[in-house]
TrEMBL record:
Keyword flag Signal: yes
Limits of the DUF4412 domain: 27-219
Keyword rRNA-binding attributed: no
UniProtKB keywords: Signal
Region (Disordered): 206-238
Name the record gives this protein: DUF4412 domain-containing protein
Stored Pfam families: DUF4412 (PF14371)
Superkingdom, taxonomy of origin: Bacteria
Signal peptide: 1-26
Amino acid sequence: MKTSRLFRLLGGLCLAVLTAASTAFAFEGKVDMTLTNGPKDKDPMAMSYRMKGEKMRMDFGGADSSSKKKKKKNDAAGAMIMDFKKKEMTMLIDEEKMYMVRELPELKPEDTKRKKGDEEFKPTGRKEKIAGVEAEEYVGKADGRIVEVWVTKEMGRYVSQQGAEGKGGWEAFMEKENMFPLRTITRKKVGGPEESRMEVTAIDRSKQDGKLFEPPSDYTKMEMPNMGDMLKGLIPGR
């Protein structure tokens, strides 16, 4: 998956920023998923999420940075750790053995309002097990695209990395309804080809080591640069 595609998908699909109103996760464990940019995408991006108490960790690339599994050449080398209680996000840059910390934004009531042109998400009645979890399909329109989301309430609340201005209608819907997406598909029109797909592939409900939610002891703290410089250091080739 090209870097530009990665950013477009991350912008709409990842769980990278928690809100001050969030509470402890009902779910503890690890969730693996893949992101693809349409059916012709031959290089899907693998991601994993770990949740424990009031903390969440996201690793992206061919393997999470806590794993000894070898990453592919173009895989992103890093992770994000979010702390509900401290209202902080910590970004790990594995190649440099460094980390950065930033504040998490507050979720305001207007953040969950639909934008002009968005259509309310409604259940279709279709249900399916995804990665062993019962999911229900909702379909709506957000940012000019048809969005099909298969959701569950077993996994806790979905929270987007976007601020109020960048947040899509489907993301606000997930947050408001305390739902977690197990599959998300976007299309230009009803029945059209897929533009992007996020799908959970495995769910591990085992207890997580608390050390995974802290910067490694041999990492050095960096002062926060602008977002562009931060991403250059995080994503190879950016």
